């Protein structure tokens, strides 16, 4: 099909202002199995983490996180894991807006971080998707025995409550919450072990100013990973979306009990 361009006179387009000399608008910082990661994506992730109250990370750390996200997202796609529902995304965005007090105060906060409402929604969707997939992938393999709950109650929860001069609840009233804390800790451990193994099998080329700087692993042809399975889900079928896992309380060194009653 031939496209014809009309010869009607048009006003000359207004030129866009050029970027100041020496300013980097955007560039490729890594190539991963044929895909790319840009500096803009790295900085966008940093802004999102600042918005959600997380510790400030270096661009190197953020890049590594994006590489890990690529690994998880590709595994989830191979497993045909469903995206989160729009209602779940709405709820998380509303929760973030609430941290600013009002929606009117939230918009300037987004703008100050260089984020748009569309970008925020996209990043919230991605985070929910990846978190739920890892929960779906590893939760069935996690086993928590009653003794581990008792040890956590005795050695972690009770000392923390005592240090805060708070009363100690009976173990029966907090056992399920402790179990979830331990499950989340094991899911994090299993996820990291899997990521370490997978990083060694993919080809990542780091770039320095647009030039190749480091090849993490040689490219090797690999078959598509098989879909993960769960009890009650037949191979070849689309798994039901996993419910959002409870948010365990955490301290810098790992799960804590400060939010337990």
Pairing-aware structural class of the strands and helices?
A: alpha+beta
Which second-level CATH architecture applies? Orthogonal Bundle
User: What string gives the helices and strands in order?
Assistant: EEHHHHHHHEEEE
Outline the biggest β-sheet: 4 strands, antiparallel
Task: Just give the CATH class.
Answer: Mainly Alpha
Overall geometric form: globular
- Uncertain segments: 1-19, 212-238, 246-259
The quaternary state of the protein chains shown equals: single chain
Write out the strand line-up for the largest beta sheet, numbering strands in chain order. 2-1-3-4
Number of strands: 6
For this structure, what is the CATH homologous superfamily? Porin chaperone SurA, peptide-binding domain
Rounded radius of gyration (Å): 23 Å
CATH topology descriptor:
Triger factor/SurA peptide-binding fold
Descriptive notes:
With 261 residues, the chain is α+β, with helices and mostly antiparallel strands. It has a single domain, classed as Orthogonal Bundle (Triger factor/SurA peptide-binding fold). It is 48% helix and 9% strand. It contains 7 helices and 6 strands; from the N terminus they run ββαααααααββββ. It has helices spanning 39-51, 59-78, 86-99, 103-112, 117-138, 146-163, 171-199, and strands at 28-32, 35-38, 204-208, 211-215, 250-251, 254-255. The strands form 2 sheets. Strands 2-1-3-4 form a 4-stranded antiparallel β-sheet. It has a two-stranded antiparallel sheet with strand order 5-6. A hairpin with a 2-residue loop joins strand 3 and strand 4 (211-215). Helix 3 (86-99) crosses helix 5 (117-138). It is globular and about 55 Å long. The model is unreliable at 1-19, 212-238 and 246-259 (pLDDT under 50).
């Amino acid at each position: 099909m031939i496209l014809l361009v009309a010869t009607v006179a048009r006003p000359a387009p207004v030129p866009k202002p050029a970027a100041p000399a020496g300013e980097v608008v955007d560039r490729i910082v890594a190539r991963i199995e044929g895909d790319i990661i840009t500096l803009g994506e790295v900085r966008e992730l940093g802004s999102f983490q600042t918005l959600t109250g997380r510790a400030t990370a270096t661009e190197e750390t953020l890049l590594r996180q994006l590489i890990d996200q690529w690994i998880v997202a590709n595994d989830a796609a191979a497993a045909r894991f469903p995206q989160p529902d729009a209602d779940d995304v709405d709820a998380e965005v509303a929760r973030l807006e609430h941290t600013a007090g009002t929606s009117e105060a939230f918009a300037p906060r987004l703008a100050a971080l260089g984020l748009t409402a569309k970008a925020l929604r996209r990043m919230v969707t991605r985070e929910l998707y990846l978190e739920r997939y890892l929960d779906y992938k590893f939760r069935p393999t996690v086993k928590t025995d009653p003794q581990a709950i008792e040890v956590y109650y005795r050695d972690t929860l009770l000392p923390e409550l005592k240090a805060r001069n708070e009363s100690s609840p009976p173990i029966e009233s907090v056992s399920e919450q402790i179990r979830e804390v331990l499950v989340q800790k094991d899911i994090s451990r299993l996820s990291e072990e899997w990521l370490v193994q997978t990083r060694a099998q993919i080809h990542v080329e780091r770039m320095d100013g647009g030039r190749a700087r480091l090849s993490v692993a040689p490219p090797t042809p690999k078959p598509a990973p098989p879909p993960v399975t769960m009890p009650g889900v037949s191979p070849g079928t689309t798994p039901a979306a996993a419910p959002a896992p409870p948010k365990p309380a955490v301290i810098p060194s790992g799960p804590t009990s400060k939010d337990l009653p």
